[in-house]
Structure prediction request, 359 residues.
Amino acid sequence: MLDDAPNLDELQSLICQLVEIESVNPDLVPGGAGEGAIAGFVSSWLRDAGLEVSIVDPVPGRPSVVGVRRGAGGGRSWMLNAHMDTVGAGGMADAFSPVVRDGRVYGRGAYDMKASLAAIMLTARRAPQLRGDLIICAVADEEVASLGTAAVLEKFRADFGLVTEPTELRLCLAHKGFVWLEVETKGVAAHGSRADIGVDAIALMAPTLVRVKDLENTLRVGRRHPLLGTGSIHASLIEGGQEFSTYPSRCVLKIERRTIPGESGKDEIEGARVLLERPPSEVAADHPLSLAVGEAAGDPQPIGVAYWMDMALMNEAGIPTVCYGPAGEGAHADVEWVELASVERCIEVYLATAEKLCN
Prediction:
């Protein structure tokens, strides 16, 4: 329980061990260590806890770890997901030397999301015998392209799923998706004095920028999701031209479209090329998974979030998945901490839900 000192000591120790292992995503920060060392720690820990462990390594040096606690048979399976990679240290001093103070663990990744990783590891070890399998996924690359979860889902299936991103002990049923788009216009380079032959590629982008602004205004008053609100669009980056006295021959505009369930966002901008697409995610409030997690958590008010997470990939793969995680602050910030008592509460909720779903 929350006042059980041995449990909190064990949890605190595990979170600190995980934070101490630098696992900065190298696609975010050149020279970041990636997931190799932390995957080695997690896989060894899960084996010692009696799980069957597999390594999923679609990209050399970027492993994900899957541990399966086999059930007695006849029950449904539940997949719990947490990512091992972090963003860079930024301005954080001693980012990988965790500090425990006032019931909180401070350090890079403590909140996002090594505390959640510790929670699902301890859930697997503390769980009673279940009829169905409990599947623990410690994944790589969530902070960039989610290669880890995508690769895991090619090899492992489950009846239900849970992503354990921090939600402040609230039940998250939905999140937005996004589409990254690129539009290019071509002009004719010429000296700035040669209006007779020069064609301004930047000026040619004007109709697209107007279209983005008009669509933004339309979306603000358009269809509204009960948990997510409306979709959105904005111009993210624009580049073109070389100097004052030259007609620009090329202009490139990059656009981000945030989507709600039922929206695509791919075909709204004429001539746009899709660079990356991630779908939105939603599970109904009356789904058996939502009801089970909600009941175990004390029936908190369901929420939706504007950011994207691996929950969408799991739902897209046919595994109904919601999100429930601990409380804290400072994801990607220079001060990051997680509340220990909330992480222990997560373990209690995960264990109670496993007994409901997997028996």
Notes: The chain has nine helices and 19 strands. The mean pLDDT is 96. The radius of gyration is 23 Å.
